[in-house]
UniProtKB/TrEMBL annotation, chain A:
<comment type="similarity">
    <text>Belongs to the small GTPase superfamily. Arf family.</text>
</comment>
<feature type="binding site">
    <location>
        <begin position="24"/>
        <end position="31"/>
    </location>
    <ligand>
        <name>GTP</name>
    </ligand>
</feature>
<dbReference type="InterPro" id="IPR005225">
    <property type="entry name" value="Small_GTP-bd"/>
</dbReference>
<dbReference type="GO" id="GO:0003924">
    <property type="term" value="F:GTPase activity"/>
</dbReference>
<protein>
    <submittedName>
        <fullName>ADP-ribosylation factor-like protein 3</fullName>
    </submittedName>
</protein>
<dbReference type="GO" id="GO:0048731">
    <property type="term" value="P:system development"/>
</dbReference>
<dbReference type="InterPro" id="IPR027417">
    <property type="entry name" value="P-loop_NTPase"/>
</dbReference>
<feature type="binding site">
    <location>
        <position position="70"/>
    </location>
    <ligand>
        <name>GTP</name>
    </ligand>
</feature>
<dbReference type="GO" id="GO:0051649">
    <property type="term" value="P:establishment of localization in cell"/>
</dbReference>
Automatic annotation (TrEMBL), chain B:
<dbReference type="InterPro" id="IPR001680">
    <property type="entry name" value="WD40_rpt"/>
</dbReference>
<feature type="repeat" description="WD">
    <location>
        <begin position="260"/>
        <end position="301"/>
    </location>
</feature>
<feature type="repeat" description="WD">
    <location>
        <begin position="132"/>
        <end position="174"/>
    </location>
</feature>
<feature type="repeat" description="WD">
    <location>
        <begin position="217"/>
        <end position="259"/>
    </location>
</feature>
<dbReference type="InterPro" id="IPR036322">
    <property type="entry name" value="WD40_repeat_dom_sf"/>
</dbReference>
<dbReference type="InterPro" id="IPR020472">
    <property type="entry name" value="WD40_PAC1"/>
</dbReference>
<feature type="repeat" description="WD">
    <location>
        <begin position="345"/>
        <end position="386"/>
    </location>
</feature>
<feature type="repeat" description="WD">
    <location>
        <begin position="302"/>
        <end position="336"/>
    </location>
</feature>
<feature type="repeat" description="WD">
    <location>
        <begin position="90"/>
        <end position="131"/>
    </location>
</feature>
Length: 139, 419
């Protein structure tokens, strides 16, 4: 990684290279999703205090996936990472009933930002395997 | 002409003769770049006495004492000398760090962060002196105006650069105009100009006092990620770009003076040596090149790394350069005669992203993605010490001018001071 490779990944994307941004509340499963995408071990995942970046090859595309920490105190910094985003994936913990309101508020705020205008959004209803998970239509 | 005083200059080693001539006080710099721990002081004093009219017989003892002090300083910082211990962990940034810098006397240091601030620290106490708040995005590049160190320059992903007063925390000027992230920003030697490099493919020159733009340097065809004023006159600027070239500019004209081409991949860093006669460049093509800063000829290409070269630096005396690479190693080369590889530093388990010499030149400091920084003997290539403790990869590191302190900055949101 290093600062230089961060600058490389900041460049406006050439063809066949996409920038994916993973956002969502803390403990939603963003880092696990990132590691899963990169075929890495997901048994030990710790809270992200900053960000993680991984590059994945898929169907001839290079996907630069940015996983950004979701703790409350660092959410105001999410827009540091909006520039040149091609796809936004918003991860929701479906078993966290208490914070559904909070997660929807954060998403609403996100979508009002100019830099994300026109960016395709995927809402990822995570943790569907848990018995306490709400079915996705309820989100 | 009458000699008034000897002044010592530690790095690179030299003495400055202060003398009076027709009522005016003048300085004459004498470089002693060859001085090392084996030097014969009496010999050097004798040859200086023979060459320099200012040095009379009655000050020869004094001269020898000065040279002895300089020599001791080099020995003191030698590889067998100092060991570093974690002294302070600076924990008030809430997001990963970017770059760091010491001031001239090593009493304060700066850290940039993803939390949009630059912090000024007291090295002795580990206390935050000021938080420089005002940038709207990541603070990437930080630096003092040398040698005065009463101003700070910061470059940010918010497309601006700012000048600050580090004592009051006040923002004194904001430089706008770039269309992309500002990833390099530096004062010239006099402190009246600021140069910036940006992801928008341009570099700019600003008036430090008024904030007015003087030139936009157009010519690179990709991101400008490295920039440096020549350390001597301060009239030349070099920039390194992801387009694979290095450009030289003049602060007095807006058109490009020269392009140094030959690399086959993105430039990762570019540096002048201290007398501005050489330019060193490192590239993701796996090589590093040395250029003659006047004739612009490529003097040497070194390609012993087996992967991308991520950083390059010269030692203070300008005898050697060091490179670091994704191949997990750092290397030291002679830059005066045959460009021979002098040492290889192997031991890091992941890429080595930053490299710098200790001021006296006996040690090399490296920062790596393996979460450690290491100190190496520049002669043997042996690892002297591993600085471990960071919980995330280390993005940047710096040596204080006196060689008695090191800072490392990490993705783990902390900055550490080692002494």
């Amino acid at each position: 990684m290093g600062l230089l490779s961060i600058l490389k990944k900041l460049r406006s994307n050439p063809d066949k290279e996409l920038r994916l941004l993973l956002l969502g509340l803390d403990n939603a499963g963003k880092t696990t999703l990132l590691k899963q995408l990169a075929s890495e071990d997901v048994t030990h995942v710790t809270p992200t205090a900053g960000f993680n970046i991984k590059s994945v090859l898929s169907s001839g595309f290079k996907l630069n996936v940015w996983d950004i920490g979701g703790q409350r105190k660092i959410r105001p910094y999410w827009r540091n990472y909006f520039e040149n985003t091609d796809i936004l994936i918003y991860v929701v913990d479906c078993s966290d009933h208490q914070r559904l309101e909070e997660t929807s508020q954060e998403l609403t705020e996100l979508l009002q930002d100019d830099k994300l205008r026109g960016v395709p959004l995927l809402v990822y209803a995570n943790k569907q395997d848990l018995s306490t998970a709400l079915p996705s239509p309820r989100q | 002409m009458k000699l008034l005083k000897f002044h010592l200059r530690y790095h690179p080693p030299g003495i400055i003769l202060e003398y009076s001539q027709k009522g005016l006080i003048k300085n004459k710099d004498i470089d002693l770049l060859e001085l090392n721990s084996n030097s014969d002081i009496k010999e050097i004093a004798k040859s200086l006495y023979q060459k320099e009219l200012l040095i009379t017989d009655d000050v020869r003892d004094q001269l020898e004492q000065c040279l002895e002090t300089l020599k001791k300083r080099i020995e003191h910082e030698g590889p067998s000398g100092k060991r570093f211990y974690i002294y302070k962990t600076l924990q008030t940034h809430v997001l990963p760090l970017t770059n760091v810098a010491f001031d001239k006397n090593g009493k304060r240091c700066l850290s940039g962060s993803y939390d949009r601030t630059c912090k000024v620290w007291d090295v002795e106490t580990g206390k935050e002196i000021k938080t420089l708040t005002g940038h709207q995005n990541v603070v990437y590049s930080v630096g003092f105006n040398f040698p005065a160190c009463n101003r700070v320059i910061s470059g940010s992903f918010d497309k601006s650069a700012k000048i600050w007063n580090p004592s009051t925390g006040e923002c004194l000027a904001t430089f706008w105009g770039h269309q992309g992230e500002v990833v390099a920003a530096q004062f010239n030697g006099k402190g009246d100009l600021v140069g910036t490099g940006s992801m928008d493919h341009t570099a700019k020159l600003f008036d430090a006092r008024t904030g007015a733009e003087i030139h936009t340097y157009v010519g690179h065809t990709a991101e400008v990620i490295a920039l440096q004023f020549d350390p001597n006159e301060g009239q030349r600027l070099i920039t390194g770009s992801f387009d694979g070239t290095i450009s030289m500019w003049d602060t007095r004209v807006k058109d490009r003076v020269t392009v140094l081409s030959g690399h086959e991949g993105e430039i990762s860093n570019v540096q002048f040596n201290w007398d501005s006669s050489l330019v060193g460049s490192s590239s993701l093509d796996g090589s590093a090149k040395l250029w003659d800063a006047r004739s612009n000829a490529c003097l040497a290409t070194v390609a012993s790394h087996s992967d991308e070269v991520l950083d390059i630096c010269f030692d203070w005396a300008g005898h050697r350069m060091a490179t670091s690479s994704s191949d997990c190693s750092a290397r030291v080369y002679d830059v005066r005669a045959d460009f021979k590889e002098l040492a290889v530093m192997k031991g890091h388990r992941e890429e080595v992203s930053k490299v710098c010499f200790s001021p006296a030149g006996g040690c090399l400091l490296t920062a790596s993605a393996d979460r450690s920084a290491r100190i190496w003997n520049t002669t043997t290539g042996n690892c002297i010490q591993v600085l471990s403790g960071h919980q995330g990869e280390i993005f940047s590191c710096a040596y204080s001018y006196a060689g008695d302190a090191i800072i490392t900055a990490s993705k783990d949101n902390t900055c550490r001071i080692w002494r």
